[in-house]
Amino acid sequence: MKRLIIVLLVLVGVLVAVDYGTAALAESAVSRQMRERLGLADDPSVRINGFPFLTQALSGKYRSVEVEAERVPVGQLRQVDVRAQLDDVTAPLSELIGSGARTLRVAQADGSVRVGTTDLESLLPGVQKLTIANLDANAVDTLIRDGGADPGLRSLDPETLARFGGTVTVLGREQDVAVVAELQIVDGKMRIVPRDVRLGDADADPLPTPVQAVLERLFTIEVDPGTLPFEVTPTEFRARDGQLELLGTAKNVVLGDGGAATSG
After folding, report:
1. pLDDT band of 53, cuts 50, 70, 90
2. Of 64, 82, 111, 202, which one has the fewest beta carbons inside 10 Å?
3. Is 13 helix (H, G, I), strand (E, B) or coil?
4. In whole angstroms, what is the distance from residue 227 CA to residue 248 CA?
5. What is the pLDDT of residues 103-140, one digit of tens each?
6. Cα–Cα distance between 66 and 139 in angstroms, integer?
7. pTM for the full predicted model
8. How do the domains of the chain map onto residue ranges?
9. What's the gap between Cα 175 and its chain centre?
10. Rounded to the nearest 10 degrees, how much is the dihedral formed by the CA atoms of 248, 250, 256, 259?
11. Virtual torsion, Cα 98, 102, 108, 110, nearest 10 deg
């Protein structure tokens, strides 16, 4: 009995090693294909979720595949983070790890790009020490009730608002600035439109209209983050974890040597 248990444990260990080894080969193959499809200089990180892998590989169907690439140069931007979540992927194992043509069919692809403060500062001349934070409905109410902000802010979804901080030079003096801006999607581009600008922090008094107008222009920019992964159409623009994030979803995506296409 003891010898049988040892044999079974060894067998399980071998099967697990084979499972992880085969998964690693498949992830490497997908990574190379994603590099070509996304036009990246290096292979992105790929993770095929679910255990055991071999049962998915034998059926050619994978529940979830994650793709991540960091500090990707796109247009004027140099450090864009690209992420994609692929659900219900169909790809024969022979194609994934073979040398011939490869085709992946994805029931749903959720893609995102994130732009950080370093890239944004390069597009905001005169602004330094930039910070980004999201707002909630309570913060908007407080800004209106106690800070005298435009009550029209209540008509906007808090998910589409962000708070920017930084320093600017006004009349030869460096001063802190606090900006509440609306985040818009225009023709696939990220547009930042200031709605409230104050010198100092968010508790400072409102500025005279001419001064606010000058600072609003300073923070009004349009950023082109490039095409979202797998030609996903952008549907959401928000602030998250100190960055700006553009997201979207595509259905029935086909990836292969002939290119990427979507339908439905």
Report:
1. low
2. 64
3. helix
4. 11
5. 778 899 898 889 999 999 988 888 889 999 999 999 89
6. 34
7. 0.76
8. 2-110+250-262, 118-223
9. 31
10. -70
11. 90
